[in-house]
TrEMBL record:
UniProt: S-adenosyl-L-methionine binding residues: S172, R179, E217
Species whose genome carries this gene: Halosimplex pelagicum
Gene: taw2
Family annotation (Gene3D superfamilies): Met-10+ protein-like domains, Vaccinia Virus protein VP39
Protein name listed in UniProt: tRNA(Phe) (4-demethylwyosine(37)-C(7)) aminocarboxypropyltransferase
HAMAP family for the chain: TYW2_archaea
GO cellular component terms listed in the entry, alphabetical order: cytoplasm
Subcellular location as annotated: Cytoplasm
Length: 343
């Protein structure tokens, strides 16, 4: 019998489940083919392919008895859903700490969908259906589908911890790779401005990587979580937060608080409207990461042209380093980010 057949699992307290899964994945021993199971009240067993060395867990157990139902379709079928109904269920969702966030689409009986997702994710206590994110403050609209209805959660990814209230602030699961990439871009001591910091999506991983980050956010609810996340991740000495309009921070002329940057992150779909403020603060040779929601037919020309035009207005030249698709934004529209060096 090899280790896989032994159905090994490690037991951890529920609030730590997501963080430990993160650690197990990095150690290469998380068994994604099996499910997280409720172990006793307050703890869960996480499936592993081998006993992990450097991961903190309470005990190692064998998952015995009936194998847990494997996927959402199994759980829905158990609730009497037909194959046609199951086809209308969502194919993906995000687990953010203790919350499952799902776009329920036109799934029938959303409450049952929520219950099934709770069964599938033993460490979660709430399922939220997400509606549109609207307005300049990017405010979410969520509905409780199942569980306790606690919209506050603490999510960990790539070693960064994000506290948030999903009823108040947006969190885009599809930006996960971009959040990690921003942390990988910076070098120690680099001066970064995150003009649209939100709860610290990019600012915190960049500060964790050693950058000195000026983080600007004008939505009061997001700003409170930005402060909390800076503290939780132990980077208060490397982040200067401002609750303000980023233009006011970058365009103020007081030499005592003048902001200069080696790198500027513009994580907002309307970022191009702020390019002049950004370029005014960017040192020669500095890098800008400009996000945009771009119709497919205009990728990558429109954001690239917008960058070139803004630089030309300041008699500066642009070297395009990379254009990336972050995710789909809507039908026929892509979320793209352009990395450019500005001389
Ligand atoms: C799209 S969200 C951040 C998304 C995040 N970068 C991500 O990838 O998930 C943009 C944020 O910018 C903030 N914001 C919009 N306009 C702003 C401005 N002029 N100054 C400062 N913050 C602004 C909004 O409140 C919101 O929190």
């Amino acid at each position: 019998m090899d280790e896989r057949d032994e159905r090994l699992a490690v037991v951890v307290d529920k609030p730590r489940a997501e963080a430990v899964i993160d650690d197990l994945e990095r150690a290469g021993v998380y068994d994604a083919d099996r499910s997280v199971r409720e172990y006793d009240e307050g703890s869960v067993s996480l499936p592993v392919t081998a006993v992990p060395d450097a991961v903190d867990y309470r005990e190692v157990v064998r998952q015995v008895g009936e194998p847990r139902l494997r996927d959402l379709a199994d759980h829905l079928r158990e609730r009497g859903w037909t194959d046609d109904e199951i086809d209308r269920a969502p194919a993906s969702w995000a687990v953010l700490g203790t919350v499952v966030l799902v776009d329920a689409g036109d799934a029938p009986r959303p409450a049952e969908l929520g219950e099934a997702l709770l069964d599938l994710h033993g460490a979660a206590d709430t399922v939220l259906a997400r509606g549109p994110i609207t307005g300049a403050h990017r405010e979410p609209d969520v509905t409780v589908l199942a569980g306790e209805g606690d919209t506050e959660t603490v999510h960990r990814e790539h070693g960064t911890t994000y506290a948030m209230d999903l009823a108040e602030v947006m969190f885009s699961p599809g930006n996960k790779a971009e959040r990690a990439r921003m942390g990988e871009q910076v070098s120690e001591g680099e001066r970064v401005v995150d003009m649209f910091a939100g709860i610290g999506y990019f600012a915190v991983p960049m500060a964790r990587a050693g950058a000195a980050v000026t983080a600007v956010e004008r939505n009061p609810a997001s700003f409170e979580f930005l402060l909390e996340n800076v503290r939780r991740n132990g980077v208060a000495d490397r982040v200067q937060p401002y609750r303000a309009d980023c233009r006011d921070v970058l365009e103020q002329t007081d030499p005592a608080t003048d902001v200069r940057a080696d790198r500027i992150v513009m994580g907002y779909y309307e970022a191009h409207e702020y390019l002049d403020s950004a370029l005014g603060a960017l040192e020669p040779g500095g890098v800008v990461h400009m996000h945009e929601a771009t119709p497919e037919a205009l990728v990558p020309d429109r954001p690239v042209e917008r960058l070139r035009d803004a630089a030309a207005d300041r008699d500066r030249s642009v070297e395009i380093l990379e254009t990336r698709r972050v995710k789909g934004y809507s039908e026929g529209v892509a979320h793209v980010v352009v990395d450019a060096r500005v001389e």
